[in-house]
Task: structure prediction
Amino acid sequence: MTTVRTIPDLAVPEFLGVKSRSRWLSLLLRVSVPALILLLWWYSTSHGWVSTEVFASPGQVVQAFWELVNTGQLWDFGLASLRRAGLGVGIGVSVALVLGLVAGLSRLGEELVDATVQIIRVVPFLALVPLFISWFGVDEAFKVALIAVSSASPMYAYTYLGVRSVDRKVVEAARGFGLRGWRLAVGVVVPSALPNILMALRICLGISLVGLIAAEQVGATEGIGYLVTLAQQYYRNDYMVLCIVIYALIGIGVDLVIRLIERTAMPWRRHGTAAG
Amino acid sequence: MSAHTTEKTTVDVKSSVVRLRGVSKSFGDKRVLDGIDLDIAPGEFVALLGPSGTGKTTLLRLLSGLQLPDAGTVLVPPVRTVVYQEPRLVQARRVLANVTLGQRGKAAREPGLAALAEVGLADKARAWPATLSGGEAQRVALARALVRQPQLLLLDEPFAALDALTRLQMQELVADLCARHRPAVLLVTHDVDEALLLADRVVVLRGGGFALDRRIDVPRPRDRDDPAVTAHRKDYLSALGVTPRRPPLEHR
Ligand SMILES: Nc1ncnc2c1ncn2[C@@H]1O[C@H](COP(=O)(O)OP(=O)(O)OP(=O)(O)O)[C@@H](O)[C@H]1O
Ligand SMILES: [Mg+2]
Result:
């Protein structure tokens, strides 16, 4: 055996896997951009680059915050809004989840539900405010209904998408093992579509804040959406900025909670490789 | 040259396309690969046998750069391709686009079509992956791996999910294509007969190291019932930990 063959230059293979970073570095990187923005805010207001008439300084906002805490209003407002948002999102998300599952799983369901929902989905929910007021009055029912409608549409869209992108072979296999309807949905489809559903939940919780602000503009004396109205009425810049800060804090809270749910509800994401 | 075995094949180190030295890999407490050395010569067809969970796929993933070794060096040639147990085709692209995946321009088209013709799927170039049968999809995966003219072809149980008849056809196809293109091949399989039919050299991975490493000097095309081939079978089965079943007494 004396075939002459040219030997290619050998090298260590380029690493194609996922590089894992230390948790602390990852956390540091995550925090760094918001921290930078905060620093910029503090610096620009304290050095007179930006007038505090236009944008209140961190100090003023913290003071406004303590005011709210000391009068007990923050607690009352938060609780009132939480109740409305919780109820509204709960109702909207449950209905949308069921509709999304039905449309995603069955042909008949898709034909009946999808086109209709997609049409309704385009209607901005804020356009429903006058109509809802005339139906429900200006009390709680109106507010909850508005938030429910606002959160239903992203939930429907993402659930439908998620169900549609579940591996059809897996669904076929599960059908073959006798899983049908409800048990197929709970046992196979929902867990597989969970990434989409949790993404939808993030968006729903964000949109419910918009719903809160719109709903609490009328007939409300408390709530974090009402806080915006209040700040506007009294032309208090510190309160205006405080509202933004509170919403940002809620955003962080929502993000943390969803991350926690993702870790506990989707443990398979942290294990294993593409090879399976 | 005897038709028999040379234990512990040694390859001239300077002329190998794969060179592993002292490669170790652990998952948690489990040491899957324990200081492994392996050389593969250019154009050599090596089959890797081993009980389930011994680290065959892990070894392949180290060679394709999907995983890093805990210790030791892994050296591979620049052009390597992999065929997995499942076809792993991009469902959203047509068959030809899957074959020429990652190659730009019109220039890739002709070789892509030629590769498809080689695996007998010239007429499926414009089909969608979802419309292919399992065997056809796997042939597309093979065409995709060959079109790059790899110096090292990694095959991770590429026939495992196929029916027996298709598997036989695929084995012949692979033997044929490898004889023509002469890449170095590392084929992972559970099938001793398949290994003995296709490979120049059959290696058994067990307990973190190579339990058996033998050159199979039987001319091709091989016949699975050739005594020169079956002579190896018992040794490999016992190296894999399969002891021949005792014949039931009452029938004797
Ligand atoms: N990402 C991982 N995390 C933890 N353990 C792993 C991981 N990947 C592989 N293992 C373990 O390493 C061992 C070897 O896995 P590998 O997939 O290489 O086996 P294999 O020889 O290819 O088996 P099979 O023949 O069944 O395909 C197994 O015990 C497996 O549980
Ligand atoms: Mg494997």
Remarks:
- The interface with chain A takes residues 14-19, 42-43, 57, 61-68, 73-80, 84, 151 of chain B (CB under 8 Å).
- The pocket of magnesium ion (ligand 2) is lined by residues B 56-57 (CB under 6 Å).
- Strands of chain B lie at 18-27, 30-40, 45-49, 71-75, 80-83, 152-156, 184-188, 201-206, 209-215.
- The CA atoms of residues 131 and 161 of chain B lie 17 Å apart.
